[in-house]
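[job 0412] stage=fold_complex status=start
inputs:
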Amino acid sequence: MSSEIPEELYDYSKREPRRPTPTDPEVDGYPIPMDVRRRLYQRQQELRQFEQRAYDLFMQNLVKGTSHLSLGMEAVSAGFAEALRPDDYTFATYRGHAHTLSKGVSPGGVMAELLGRENGILQGKGGSMHLTSVEHNMMGSYAIIGAHLCIANGTAWSAQMRGTDQVTVVFFGDGTTNIGAFHEALNFAAIWDLPIVFVCENNLYMEYTPIDYITAVEHPAADRASAYGLDRIVVDGNDADAVYQVATEVVGKARQGGGPSMVEAVTYRHGGHSRADPGKYRPPEEIEAWKNQDPIQVYHSRLLRLGLPEQDLIEIQQSVATMVDEATEFAKSGQPPSPELAMTDLWADGGSSWRN
Amino acid sequence: MARMTMIESIRDAHFVSMEADDAVVVFGEDVGHFGGVFRCTQGLQERFGKHRCFDAPISELGIVGAAIGMAANGLRPCVEIQFADYMYPAYDQIVSEAARIRHRSVGDFTVPMTIRMPTGGGIYGGQTHSQSPEALFTHVSGLKTVVPSTPYDAKGLLLASIEDNDPVIFLEPKRLYNGPFDGHYDRPVVPWSKHESAEVPEGHYTVPLGKAVVRRPGADVTVLAYGTMVYVALAAAEESGIDAEVIDLRTLIPLDTELIIESVKKTGRCIVVHEATRTSGFGAELAAIVQEEAFFHLEAPIRRVTGWDTPYPHAQEWDYFPGPDRVRAVMSDVMEV
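[job 0412] stage=fold_complex status=done
writing structure:
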């Protein structure tokens, strides 16, 4: 039996590459103060070098289980972090290392958590996919797709009811836009007029499948926004300034009682979905094109154009490298948690017993 | 002291808790303006405003998800799922998030939340308005599961649940909303106004979670029951002439194992009764605990009287329902061993 179905439907790596939209030259001229831009650069360096180290530690078999890296997606997390106050709330997915660090959580504690050590931020109970720091209002990383969008609404409701002007920002992937929780969450946010920002990190792939192959619209989040009365906002997720600019607007709107927004940041992950995935379902020219528009390179070039001495940037890189080394040493110095620790904190009394 | 139906006492518990604590918020489908399909939240919106009691879309996942986020941020949500049968879209939130967040965040992110849902059959609700899903919750570490059987307990247990710092599943036997139903479906309904356990004190009191109660002391056989089945077991005991000790568990998690084991050691026999399907039901857990801890006191096998291992059949509702005849027959069986 002969088949009329073209080969690219079976082998995604042979599909037409989806290339990045070129960096908008006008972004250079955005009125963003240089100290903010330096911080954006530093933050992206932190996220990049931390994730590279996490990858190296995987290769040394020091990180158990899977993990999902944000390499190539740093501009989204950095851009939003810069627009937030410390008392604002964030929620992330299992690809949450960057968002946890961006909220100011200790890199050593996060690294130790990846290694499953007792000195990890969750004493090894959460691991890579559940990084949480309530102390920093980083309200968790969630490995069930879409679940946290609904929970984030509750946080936003709480802020609204308590009369604070705290904003909740919830990050999720493109794959999330096809699950019911996404739509239920947007509807709730809209009817309750919540101070919340939904941020879709569209890296073009839902795990191993091109998002456009399994989604009815081109922009999985932005093209659905109108169904909930929200504006259609698409931003270059590989340009931290572009993200920061949009983030400032939507966070400001939410803070002033203007209600929810949704932002779709189009970006790309350099690696596969998770540790086990080399990402070979993607056309090589596509990977190449996105790596050529790497967010850190884009930003490095911009800062040089704007007159920042290269030596300053090198110093930032070096100080971050030292920080990552220290985080690694801290993590390695931790002990594996005792089995007894698993029996704690199930119930409010601190234990795990359910009968007398 | 006034006599109340279970609906009225649940409503009263809401009033008392919302009056005492501004952090308590109540929402769900038709819960605000209409006051709930079973009227358990009637008048709350009027009294406390639309920020404390409000309507949600048909969106169980969204409701429970939002409640988790509220609970993590200083509120004490008490949400209603219109029927326990509608809980499944929210099950992921309940299991993967509410039950586990405290553990994986080392106690930092907590969920003091109560989810109320009417449970059980006896109203010709068919497959999707009659289920008793308690074992789906007791199987999940991190959830408390409560099943009241009287208006007094319903108020006291609901107040204790709302004030509890863990997520609580509060299952309301809908066949008991208006009266103590003993399974004799062909007889006139006895209203709560004619029953002394409908005496409900005004104001605040709690019935602690984890404390069972002996509803009928007896020497021959221990019958473990909760919800509607408490009255079925009591009826069976009276009709059989067997001196059964009927224990109302009231809360499944945490479980009052002490009272159960003490009773079985005294009677030497044990029957577990629940309306839910038999296989992997909570009765299996109870039977396991009793044999682990009182094996050498047993004079007969532990028996279960339960719903069938089928969906709740519409037309054969009273065949499925483990009524007093079935309980009585098993009581006689174990006494003959």
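[job 0412] summary: Residues 100 and 138 of chain A are 6 Å apart (CA to CA).
[job 0412] exit 0
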